[in-house]
Amino acid sequence: MRLKPILGKEPAQGGLQTEYDKNIRICTSSERDDIQIIKRIDKTIPGRLMHTESMPLSGIFSCVRLWIFLGTKKHRNGDKFMKKQTIKTIVTALTVAAMVCSLTGCAGNSSGATETFNAEKSSAAENTEAAAGVEQDNEKDSVIVVMGPSSEPEAGFDPAYGWGAGEHVHEPLIQSTLTVTKADMTIGYDLATDMNVSDDGMTWTVTIRDDVKFTDGEPLTAEDVAFTYNTLRDTSSVNDFTMLEEAKALDNTTVEFDMTRPYSIWPYTMAITGIVPEHAYGPDYGSNPVGSGRYIMKQWDKGQQMILTANPDYYGDEPKMKTVTVLFMDEDAAYAAALSGQVDLAYTSAAYSDQTVDGFSLLACKTVDNRGFNLPVIPVGETDENGVPLGNDFTSDINVRRAINLAIDRDEMIEHVLNGYGTAAYSVCDQMPWYNEAAEVDYDPDMAAAILKEAGWLAGSDGILEKNGVRAEFNMLYPTGDSVRQALAEDTANQLKEIGIKVTTEGVGWDTAYDRAQSTPLMWGWGAHTPMELYNIYHTAPGKEYAEYSPYANEKVNGYMDEALAESDLEKSYELWKNAQWDGTSGITQDGDLPWIWLVNIDHLYWVKDGLQVAEQKLHPHGHGWSIVNNVDQWTWK
Fold it and tell me: Which residues make beta-bridge pairs with 246?
């Protein structure tokens, strides 16, 4: 039996509870001899449960992380089989509590307040019968998906505050967009039926459908489109709308965008900007969104789950999945939820990829979610306008940067860090229409060593290369808490040691990482469905001497990107983006300036229940979140 979405029922007896004296004991009658997990939870553990707290489904499995920690601590550095069996046993017991909680109406509260018992609502038998009926009716057109906690939008489902955009770009589902990105990352239409741009690139004219209504019954017109874009221009905390002067409705189905500067990739911005209704937009829109997309937000229990139901008045193809429940859980809890069989699709990572889950298969989605590190190209001695030190005496040598790129065995990293789930990365935009294959190199440590030797880098007494008093060494920063980036940093250090370069890895917080990256390599994560990712990384920042994230500047590279943005033909602009990467004589690739080294694109992994047919996925961008459900309306059960 699969747990059903909980639509606002009052809690009743049967919810998972904890002891006020902070002791936890969980066991089932059938496994009492096997499970005797009685541990004292220290009061300093964040998020410990309080007396008589009841939780919805996602809350129950969030508790699993604690039991995994307690039950597998002694196996942490030991037998994987023992860890797996311990987790399975724990989950078996938790599943009983979860199923009881579901059948008796244990629900979350969007305000976060602790809920109280209301056992008088109905008997457990009545609820069991009702749940069975719902399952029989809806099993073939509903799905339960688990995403990470960071996928839940803090400000709600408002495009002005990151819904559909930001670091984790995706289709907004609740709202419609003017355009969409197709499987090959070129542009298609959603609300738009036609699109034109003036020869000077300063005016875009878009015609929209005339048969679209918001879910409150009001028609969607060009006035709503203009309102949305002007609102985001003035208030967006995520997207850059500085290129937009004004959006104007010329009539009910025609909107005109006047630009502050030519911006050929405007259609990619239109693909992630959900249209909101002018008549129903206000401060609480993020919590109570009205849209015209494929789904309606039925319920949102903050920190726990959100439930989408199909929009019966949707103008496109009718969604095959009528109900989509999204649970927000950490990685351990997501794995436990899959083991329990109570969810249909759950995100996971390469760390779990060698496990098996009965009744599930592992889906690997290809991505442009890349990892790589910057190499400051100027020597020490400068500071920026805020006094932040710039440059690195070792990485400022172009021969060093080229040798490092050749000395990296990307296939080894994919195998040992990602358990085989990834692809080699050579740029921030691999496989995109604007990607230049000239970025690709072969692993060649002998050539790397020869380049360094020819450049005058010779081994010192400890085997580390030296030149003119400068040692071949640097720190490699990685974000604290990101185990994948840490492992990639360590692997990079091990590989570069083979050619006489000493790398010391160091975990840092983001509060200092940005400044320190101006002089020290940092392991980054990038990847988006727009050429602006190239611009943001390599183009000189407005009003500054160098690029934003690492000191680098090349006027020719800047020129190509500026020309690409000014090009009125989107397809022609792709070639200019390619030239910015390498035009035969200059650029940012191996034979050019090479200010960044790219390592891998990380596959996004999901446990998928047998029988669930996930529609074909386009390349996922950076962020292991909502991209998987871009086409959830096309998913089916067999």
Answer: 258
* More confident of the two residues 116 and 614: 614
> Comparing C-alpha atoms, which of 397, 424, 439, 444 is closest to residue 591?
439
Cα separation values, 344 from 90, 152, 306, 327, 611, Å = 20, 19, 15, 11, 9
441 or 106, higher pLDDT: 441
Sheet holding 470-471, edge to edge: 458-459, 465-467, 470-471
Q: Which helix (H) or strand (E) holds 484?
A: helix 483-497
Extended strands (E) in 138-273: 142-147, 179-181, 187-189, 192-197, 203-208, 244-251, 254-259
Helix (H) or strand (E) holding 431: none
In degrees and rounded to multiples of 5, residue 376 shows phi and psi of -55, 130
Given the structure tokens 């609102």, which residue do they identify? 231
The pLDDT of residue 558 is above 90:
yes
Q: pLDDT tens digits, residue range 21-51?
A: 333 333 333 333 333 322 322 332 333 333 3
- 410-434 pLDDT, tens per residue? 999 999 999 999 999 999 999 999 9
- Residue 59, number of CB atoms within 10 A of its CB: 26
Closest of 153, 504, 480 to residue 303, by C-alpha = 153
Specify whether the CB–CB gap between 625 and 525 falls below 8 A. no
pLDDT in tens, 158-175: 998 878 765 556 788 999
Cα–Cα distance for residue pair 371/364, rounded to 1 Å: 17
Supply the pLDDT for residue 28.
34
572-595 tens-digit pLDDT: 999 999 999 999 999 999 999 999
Distance CA 222, CA 277 (A): 10
Q: What is the pTM of this model?
A: 0.80
- Show the tokens assigned to 203: 């005016």
Which of 146, 145, 133, 165 shows the shortest CA–CA distance to 232?
165
Task: Give the residue carrying structure tokens 């959900």.
Answer: 274
What is the C-alpha separation between 55 and 102, in angstroms, rounded?
Answer: 10
Cα(535)–Cα(565) distance, integer angstroms: 10
The answer to whether the CB of 89 falls within 8 A of the CB of 31 is yes
Instruction: Spell out the residues 6+ positions from residue 415 whose beta carbon is closer than 8 angstroms to its own.
Output: none
Q: At what angle do helices 64-72 and 80-103 cross, to 10 degrees?
A: 150
Q: Which three-class secondary structure state does DSSP give residue 448?
A: helix
* Both tokens assigned to 192: 């738009």
DSSP assigned state of 437: G
Q: Is the pLDDT of residue 492 over 90?
A: yes
- Average pLDDT of the residues of the chain: 83
The single residue listed with the structure tokens 């500071």 is 383
With H, G, I as helix, E, B as strand and everything else as coil, classify residue 403: helix
Q: Which residues are registered as beta bridge partners of 326?
A: 145, 306
530 φ, ψ (degrees, to nearest 5): -160, 145
Shortest CA distance to 381 belongs to which of 501, 518, 505? 518
What tokens appear for 322 in the block?
């009528």
Query: Do 310 and 318 contact (CB within 8 A), yes or no?
Result: yes
d(CA 103, CA 97): 10
What's the count of helices (H) and strands (E) in the chain, helices before strands? Answer: 15, 28
Q: Tell me, what DSSP letter sits at residue 119?
A: T
The residues, any chain, with a CB within 8 Å of residue 136's CB and separated by 6 or more, are none
Query: What's the chain's length in residues?
Result: 638
What CA–CA distances, in Å, run from 411 to 402, 415, 622? 18, 6, 20
Q: Reply yes or no on whether the pLDDT at 135 is more than 70.
A: no
> Which pLDDT score, from 0 to 100, does residue 46 have?
35
